[in-house]
Automatic annotation (TrEMBL):
Keywords: Iron, Iron-sulfur, Metal-binding, S-adenosyl-L-methionine. Residues 16-205 form the Radical SAM core domain. GO terms for molecular function: catalytic activity; iron-sulfur cluster binding; metal ion binding. The keyword Ubl conjugation does not apply. This is Radical SAM protein. Its cofactor is [4Fe-4S] cluster. It comes from Marinobacter nauticus. Signal peptide: none annotated.
Amino acid sequence: MYSFPIDYIEPVFRPPSEAKSLILPVTNGCSWNQCTFCEMYTQPQKKFRARKPEDIRADIEKAAAAFGDVRRVFLADGDAMVLPTRRLLEIIADLKRAFPGLERVSSYCLPRNLAKKSVEELAQLREAGLKILYVGMESGDDEILRRVNKGETWESTRSALVKIREAGLVSSVMVLNGLGGEALSWQHAINTAALCNETQPDYLS
């Protein structure tokens, strides 16, 4: 009977564009996990924690033995960028040793956690192999962000996306149409458009 080399704590999520990527969990759950609209990581088994380096390394080795060379890797769960830059560099180095043909590494990203990383650190990660960060903007309206307990503001998201661009990384931004309901639909649309125009993400969905 076939056994997948990585023992995931389900459910596991990834962006649609990562369908052909190896999903490597480096954390479990989401470091914020308080957004009222999101149930991705609310199950008890998805309580946030960083995985042990030796467990991540073992998963990489098992995946290399099972799949051979891998071109793309997505670092799960909800926000791998919460990890210290040093740890992320170690993980990417382990991946490149195991998969010599590795072309890109990607991750979800909370703006609040990029506030703790400099442009220079992000550039280091890009040079190591990180290519794409998926950012949940959701809305560019501060009132809506407060109501859904996003833990972010127009400015925190703007600052994160500017850092990503300055570091030479690719940004893929997610917006939730209708998040303001009928009452706040106008300000949701106008302020989200303003934030997107200000930051010019590479991809928008």
